[in-house]
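Support request from a user on the community tier.

User writes: "When I paste my structure tokens into the form, the page sometimes reloads and wipes my input. The last time it worked, I copied everything first. Here is what I submitted, just in case something in the input itself triggers the reload:"
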């Protein structure tokens, strides 16, 4: 696939500087750019690469003023990062379209009661259970299991090894990466008088709404009763644990190795960093932002507030505490010196008040 600089500029409603007929066929990072590639400059710390890159076309901001001559063609836009993201999406769609497969690979099993939409692909060694519905243009990769009475919407992609337990509901344009498990039992056990634990049956399900993307090796547990909800537009990283009856608000993002305990409700547009731990039965306000490795064990009420540390505290308080924490070794040393000096003073005082024999 080849595009001219002019075609790219027109598509992005940008302003062109340089050879409008130069062509590109690949995308690249600016530091790795070579002839025939397209890249972008958004972060000014990478500006030095624009003067040495061999890329044919570079997307830059309208406010970019080069301090040296550039050999590439420039496409000026309001937001180069967003513009390049649009091109990445279109490029990815084109690649997927070119490699689009339909039909059912063998060996695989599709229950006679399953309803399969148009232009669906089901990879080899997959198992589609009774009463499953799969929407048009969805791709079910190899070794995927879809449990009874589950629904998968249109234009979904389930990567190899994905497991959907029974009655899972997947919306449209959902992407689930390899080895993720949707609908496994929630962690519910009742302590008994003899010190053992009795399992509490988990009879609910998981509902994943439209335009959600879930990374590899993530687990989302079914509800004890009712549903665990992953709302529209949520983006989950790899290696995340979402417990039973959690509700994760629209357009929230969660980074790797974070865990949300049971029955916690996270408001829309939350941003949760890596290795964050959130206790159960909490409510987090809309727009809550939690820094990496923070621990949340309380409700948050104020919207769009940043929290850091364990136990978490407001960002400004955490920054002050961090400064003090770094000073602790010096403070300890000074206290030790003061204690020694006080001890010397006390000894001198005792010596001066002792009666002479």
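"...and here is what came back when it finally went through:"
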């Amino acid at each position: 696939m080849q595009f001219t600089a002019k075609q790219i500029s027109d598509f992005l409603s940008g302003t062109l500087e340089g050879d409008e007929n130069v062509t590109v066929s690949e995308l690249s990072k600016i530091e790795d750019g070579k002839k025939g590639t397209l890249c972008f400059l958004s972060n000014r710390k990478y500006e030095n690469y624009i003067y040495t890159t061999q890329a044919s076309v570079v997307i830059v901001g309208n406010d970019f003023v080069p301090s040296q001559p550039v050999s590439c063609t420039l496409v000026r836009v309001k937001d180069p990062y967003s513009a390049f993201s649009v091109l990445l999406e279109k490029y990815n769609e084109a690649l997927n379209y070119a490699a689009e497969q339909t039909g059912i690979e063998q060996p695989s099993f599709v229950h006679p009661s399953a309803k399969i939409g148009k232009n669906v692909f089901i990879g080899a060694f997959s198992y589609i259970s009774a009463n499953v519905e799969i929407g048009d243009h969805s791709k079910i990769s190899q070794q995927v299991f879809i449990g009874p009475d589950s629904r998968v919407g249109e234009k979904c992609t389930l990567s190899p090894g994905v497991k959907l337990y029974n009655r899972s509901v997947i919306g449209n344009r959902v992407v689930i990466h390899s080895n993720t498990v949707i609908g496994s039992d929630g962690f519910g056990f009742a302590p008994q008088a003899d010190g053992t634990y009795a399992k509490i049956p988990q009879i609910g399900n998981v509902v994943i709404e439209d335009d959600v993307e879930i990374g590899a090796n993530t687990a989302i547990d079914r509800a004890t009763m009712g549903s665990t909800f992953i709302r529209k537009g949520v983006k989950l990283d790899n290696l995340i644990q979402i417990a039973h009856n959690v509700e994760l608000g629209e357009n929230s993002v969660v980074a790797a190795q974070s865990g949300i305990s049971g029955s916690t409700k996270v408001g829309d547009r939350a941003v949760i960093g890596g290795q964050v731990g959130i206790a159960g039965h909490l409510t987090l306000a809309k727009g809550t932002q939690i820094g990496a490795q923070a621990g949340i064990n309380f409700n948050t009420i104020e919207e769009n507030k940043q929290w850091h540390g364990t136990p978490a505290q407001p960002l400004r308080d955490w920054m002050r505490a961090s400064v003090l924490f770094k000073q602790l070794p010096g403070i300890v040393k000074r206290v030790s010196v003061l204690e020694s000096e006080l001890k010397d003073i006390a000894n001198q005082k005792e010596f001066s008040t002792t009666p002479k024999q």
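Agent notes: The reload is a front-end session timeout and is unrelated to the input. Helices lie at 5-12, 80-98, 315-353. The domain at 103-314 is CATH 2.160.10.10 (UDP N-Acetylglucosamine Acyltransferase; domain 1). Escalated to web team.
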